[in-house]
């Protein structure tokens, strides 16, 4: 199945595997989750039945046979399975580095807002993945570049969630100069500035007061962190925008953090350039799950979380006479 939700462009997925072409699935995981070993046992038992060829990252090598294929940045895979939480999925997205590989996230943690299923749904999720019964939802990604004082590119990253330029551990605000498409738009006196994708709008940007953006509405969200003014509000920019940030005063070094996981120190003379990445990240979604259902279940949005706690697959009639799902597969 290759459908997409409203607002998304059709994205082709790999045809269901034949007897001669197994589906190669890369596997990354977070060893800190106590249920990881059991999940790995289930995965190894299902792989021969579903004609899956597994490739484990080095950290998971001990769970598989000695001849199991190792997953590296250069390993060609048809799909990626992430075992952990949202952070594990974000790490997996950087691993595929722009290749159009659908990512199936299995939530072993508490929130799992980006993931596709929970551990109890792993069996069915893998079967649907193997037979192509899913859609690959394209999620806009960002490309961030650190440019030094001479104009030389020093570092580059890809981000599915956000890129943040912020202060370190000192208790004072910093002035951040911001340009959009070479036009100076503001100088923020703040603790930092979050540049996020629609996917990242429900992460750090949301905590900083930014808007919730439906993931398929491509845009770049610019959110100051604890701004020291009443006249600054978050901005929603077109996806074609090029955002430039620079610290105007404060300490000699700031920090740039990508997806809350990687980054570097940042000299005050340097410029952070953030723009849309060339290719999106493909997140596996199954029919019957929606973004707003995840908002209600995971973040308590709209005060309707109790409606989605039925979990029995029934439907209820909406006030308008339409039909709404009574139970939504946990994401």
Q: In which order are the strands of the major sheet placed? A: 8-7-18-15-10-11
Query: What is the CATH class of the largest domain?
Result: Alpha Beta
What characteristic shape results from the CA principal axes?
Answer: elongated
Q: Write down the domain tally.
A: 2
Rounded mean pLDDT is 83
> What's the N-to-C terminus distance?
19 Å
Helix-strand pattern, N to C? EHEEEHEHEEEEEEEHEEEEEEEHEE
- According to CATH, the homologous superfamily of the largest domain is Probable inorganic polyphosphate/atp-NAD kinase, domain 1
**How many strands, what sense, and barrel or not for the largest sheet?**
6 strands, antiparallel
Low-confidence stretches: 1-17, 310-331
Structural class: alpha+beta
DSSP summary, beta strand count = 21
Q: Count helical runs.
A: 5
User: Looking at CATH, which topology of the largest domain would you report?
Assistant: Rossmann fold
How much helical structure, as a percent, in the residues? 10-25%
As a percent range, the share of strand residues is 25-35%
Global Rg: 21 Å
CATH-scheme architecture of the largest domain: 3-Layer(aba) Sandwich
